[in-house]
Amino acid sequence: MIEQFAYFDVWTSIQGTYTLELFGDGNLQYQATLPVPPNGFFGVYDGNYDPNFWPFAGHYDIDEWELRVTVTPEGGGFNPAAPAQANVKKKGRRRPHNPPYAGLTVQQIGVVSAIGSAQDDVDQYMETIFRAHHQAAYQIDLDGALLNEFTTPTPAIQGAGDWTKLRTLIQDAFDPFNYFHYFGHGSKGLIGIVGVPAESITLAQLQASRLTNTPMNYAILDGCRAGENPVMLEAFIFFPRVIPVQKFLLNGWIPRFGASWNNTKRIEFIVQGTLVYRHFDFWVDYYTKLTEPNPVGFMFRTYKEAYTFAKTPMGLGVNPNTTQNDEAGGFVPQGCYECVFDW
After folding, report:
1. For residue 44, what pLDDT is reported?
2. Which of 239, 236, 237, 255 is nearest to 166 (CA)?
3. 249: which residues sit within 8 A by CB, 6+ positions away?
4. Quick check: bond before 55 cis, omega within 30?
5. What's the pTM?
6. Which of 121, 103, 136 is nearest to 281 (CA)?
7. Distance between CA atoms of 158 and 239, rounded to whole angstroms?
8. Which of 10, 91, 226, 313 has the most other CB atoms within 10 Å of its CB?
9. pLDDT in tens, 27-50
10. Would you state the pLDDT for residue 78?
11. Closest CA to 283 of 227, 221, 193, 192
């Protein structure tokens, strides 16, 4: 694993001597020739990693690591056993840069009816989410340009052309954004419209993108049942399930979090022509708690705390009449659930 703590583990059943070489982008970083331990385990790790500095412990400016290992068996004579060799190349999963991070808050137009005020109401909710999202990551538009949160409306996907822009940003942006909140159609195999390749981004496209090397720190897929398939969020953030924060710290992993919905929740944004306000109230309450500052101005609430508050605001949320928000059912978290928004 290579994130904030680089370590490479090796095991062999052969007793003898090993030679280990670690290369970073073709340059030799470390080498050693030693006896294979009795249990067969050996390797190399970054001895400078200090978990006390996590989650900002370190940054490796290397795109590809290569570990070369040769084990020469014990023995001699006229017919010694042939050495065993192994080469492993691994892309480094890492932050593309240090804070501040770039983020995109985007909605797909056409999810709710254009009749009446539903779209206007969604626009206002998205603006609230956009401003909260800005607390952790400066916001960009679909062209990758910096947005002014006070003068620019939340980015919106209007059609195939905008989907192309979003696909490009996600797949191979030169300076990739790594905070993402998406509201729109989706499924367990894509975001966007099922059966319309020009207006969707598929799981296969995500898995073949730059995300395999530089996953996002944060991804919310507020679409239909994307959480039924944990591989969807895994394609964005690398982690396929909730993992204790202590494991992130000990292993030096970059804190990454994502969430979506499974089929426990009725994914409907319009019921009999009326917007399902509680769905959007959930996100407003979630981000309100998530961005709550401590006395010196830093965020300290975890994603889990934010979800708990949004689920049971007890009249303290955006709607004073809501004690428990049933829209919270079906929420699927993945990654570092006990991490903080702007880590």
Report:
1. 94
2. 236
3. 51, 54, 55
4. yes
5. 0.89
6. 121
7. 31
8. 226
9. 999 999 999 999 999 999 999 999
10. 52
11. 221
Domain 7-91: top CATH class = mainly beta
Q: Residue 52: how many CB atoms within 10 A of its CB?
A: 6
pLDDT at residue 268, as a whole number: 66
For tokens 């603006």, name the residue: 127
The low-confidence residues of the chain, meaning pLDDT below 50, are: 77
Type of residue found at 253: W
Cα separation of 192 and 196, whole Å?
8
Q: Write down the residue that tokens 């992130």 correspond to.
A: 248
* Selection from 290, 287, 309, 286 nearest residue 300 by Cα: 290
Compute the distance between CA of residue 61 and CA of residue 283 in angstroms, rounded to an integer.
36
Predicted local distance difference test score (pLDDT) of residue 92: 67
Q: Please write the tens of the pLDDT for every residue from 92-105.
A: 666 555 677 899 99
What pLDDT shows up at residue 273? 63
Is residue 166 a contact partner of residue 157, using CB atoms and an 8 Å limit? yes
- The amino acid that residue 56 corresponds to is F
Residue 336 backbone phi and psi in degrees, to 5: -90, 85
For residue 18, what pLDDT is reported? 96
Query: How many other CB atoms sit within 10 Å of the CB of residue 337?
Result: 18
* Number of CB atoms found within 10 A of residue 233's CB: 28
State the residue for tokens 């050495």.
83
